[in-house]
Amino acid sequence: AQKVTQAQTEISVVEKEDVTLDCVYETRDTTYYLFWYKQPPSGELVFLIRRNSFDEQNEISGRYSWNFQKSTSSFNFTITASQVVDSAVYFCALVYNQGGKLIFGQGTELSVKP
Amino acid sequence: GAVVSQHPSWVICKSGTSVKIECRSLDFQATTMFWYRQFPKQSLMLMATSNEGSKATYEQGVEKDKFLINHASLTLSTLTVTSAHPEDSSFYICSARYDRPSHGYTFGSGTRLTVV
């Protein structure tokens, strides 16, 4: 079965704290892509990152970093020194064949308080 | 690049009427579009996949006669909610797959439908 699990439904932190959002996926395919999207209150989905299954390098983009570990089928997302503007729902997603449909996790609602 | 424009952003309609939502790919050709539905505090649920020039493929449990999808051109896909009822009130969002510069998905800004 193809599945994405984001076990953390809601996370609340204080500004400047670091926070990690967990994502665990299931797929039988050897070729797949993983994504993270941000959904602010406006509802629009904002693309954050895409990673293919053959690229296990971790990535850093400013305050954002991603840890992809095939051994544990995880693709976790860390925000360093969180800011109020980071408050949103974050979705992890999987597509297991090119052109196929995105399978979304349940989402994690992050609340960053000043 | 790879922008999808979705309209309207919100709509209120009376029960029993039909509502059409449009998604246009502005700077690329979208051979495949996906339509999602999202209830408050929930994830995106795929309703259907549409390919230009062919019938849409609906997910299990989605009524094809109620949610009509048309993908008549490479830049336009529409979702029509027919005979809308209050339980159809939701956030609808489209997505298009693009191939350049790299394989990915872009999303419309969503349509908030309220049926009264």
What does this structure look like?
The complex is a heterodimer of chains A (114) and B (116). Chain A has 114 residues and is mainly β. In chain A, 0% of the residues lie in helices and 52% in strands. Chain A has strands at 3-5, 10-14, 19-21, 24-26, 33-39, 46-52, 59-61, 64-69, 74-79, 88-95, 103-104, 108-113. The model of chain A has no long low-confidence stretch (mean pLDDT 93). With 116 residues, chain B is an all-beta fold. In chain B, 0% of the residues lie in helices and 53% in strands. The radius of gyration of chain B is 14 Å and the shape is globular. The A-B interface holds A 33, 35, 37, 42-45, 47, 50, 91, 95, 98-99, 101-102, 104-107, 109 and B 32, 34, 41-44, 46, 49, 91, 93, 95, 97, 102-107, 109-110, 112.
Describe this protein with a few key phrases.
heterodimer; A: 114 residues; mainly beta; six-stranded mixed sheet; four-stranded antiparallel sheet; 12 strands; 52% strand; B: 116 residues; 11 strands
The multimeric state of the shown protein is heterodimer
User: What is the percent of helical residues of chain B?
Assistant: under 10%
Relative strand content of chain A? over 45%
Shape of chain A: globular
* Unreliable runs of chain B: none
State the order of secondary-structure elements of chain B, H for helix, E for strand: EEEEEEEEEEE
Q: Roughly what is the average pLDDT of chain B, rounded to an integer?
A: 92
Rounded radius of gyration of chain B (Å)? 14 Å
Mean pLDDT of chain A: 93
Largest sheet of chain B: 7 strands, mixed
Distance between the termini of chain A: 41 Å
Q: Roughly how much helix do the residues of chain A carry, as a percent range?
A: under 10%
Total DSSP E strands of chain A: 12
SSE string of chain A, helices as H and strands as E: EEEEEEEEEEEE
Q: What composes the largest sheet of chain A?
A: 6 strands, mixed
- Counting DSSP H or I runs of 4 or more residues, the number of helices of chain A is 0
Beta content of chain B comes to over 45%
Radius of gyration of chain A: 14 Å
- Number of beta-strand segments of chain B: 11
